[in-house]
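Summary for the steering committee. The consortium agreed at its last meeting that each partner would contribute one worked example illustrating the joint modelling workflow. Our contribution is presented below. We chose a case with several input lines so that the handling of multiple components could be demonstrated. No manual editing was applied between input and output; the record is shown as generated.
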Amino acid sequence: MAWCEGRGERRRLDLALIGAQPEGTWVVAFRDVARQVLSEDEAKALNLALDGLQAALRGETADLDAYFPDLVRRDA
Amino acid sequence: MPEAGLEGELAISLDWDGRRVRAARVASTRPARVAQVLVGKRAADAVALVPRLFSVCGRSQAVAAALACDRAAGIGADTARRQKRSAQVDGEIAHEHFWRILLDWPRAAGESGDAALFARIRARLPDWDAGRHDLAILLAEQILRAPLGVLEDPERFEDWLDAGESPLARVLARLRTEAAELDAPCVPLLPTITPGLAGVLARRLDADERFSGAPDWDGRPHETGARARLRARPLVAGTKPVLGRLAARLVELAELLNGEPAERMGATTISRGDAIAWVETARGLLTHRVTLDGETIARYQIVAPTEWNFHPRGALAVELAALRAADRAQLGRRVELLVQSLDPCVAWGVEVGHA
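What follows is the complete predicted structure of the assembly.
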């Protein structure tokens, strides 16, 4: 078990499925069980995407592209 | 109550008089319009984004998105791509079913579950075509400690539970006792998805902007999931609903690992640039409806299995409303079992007030 913080929450997560992790590692959890370790890039992209989602849900639709830089930069 | 992140949670509240539930309310705080963020994106980008936004069944979500966007754009899939998508969905269903079996059901029965075994199984899952053979053997030898044939009919299943020779048999025997007292009439099972049925869902999505958050069929909420998919299997048909939902996942897992063919996905065109796709996921039917404007998404609507089963008047609400319990602890166990049997993809919390 480990205390984890992210996206404004603090929760105690079960690490049994992924093993002990160094501090600062981002994980994806489901029902207080950490199920997947994220690389730094993956964590960054996912956090941005979730920020974009929150912005969209608040009705801020003007410049959502900033939240999805890897998509926007891809060649058309 | 657990704190909800962006994914929202299921808020269950019960009025209990010390013996019976007098009223039950099921409310989801899941943002209903998550799919809105996909509007304006190119279809290919939406498909890449979807598994990030919906990570619980990310692969099935990605497949549903790809199927819907491809169909809307008039793109067909070659055999290789179809097989790859099938393997991804099958592997994900197996992953979720193993998780319930090894971790969640034991917890519902007051046991600790086998995280180490699940971790070993997870490691084998990514190589689905090779891994599933090993996992079929593992399911029989280590989890059932009996031939897979015990899942073929109610009599053999009951005997296997009674013999109690594996942790899972003992867990299910305990849940069987609890489940035997849960006797509510159920909402009907969702019919097998077909292009025609999918077309009807698309028309409902057109007609009612709340449909994606609270879907119904034939004027009433329906149940989706392994029990609906496998309703004709002798074990599922011959077992009372709550235990039947668990049994159905076991049967489905065995069939998946044995490579039994099944139609788990499809898509149909609604009109030019407009399509609806579906994937049968671990928790039930997932549908994505996409309308394109050229290469970009003009409209995106998702109906997930959790919305069917946790509808305010759906399976959980109906069955909670019929709960009896001798004390608060038994009430808690029965609520947990009911919720587990329907398996929401979000966190959930219960408040019990006195009627």
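Chain B has 14 helices and seven strands. The longest helix of chain B spans residues 79-108.
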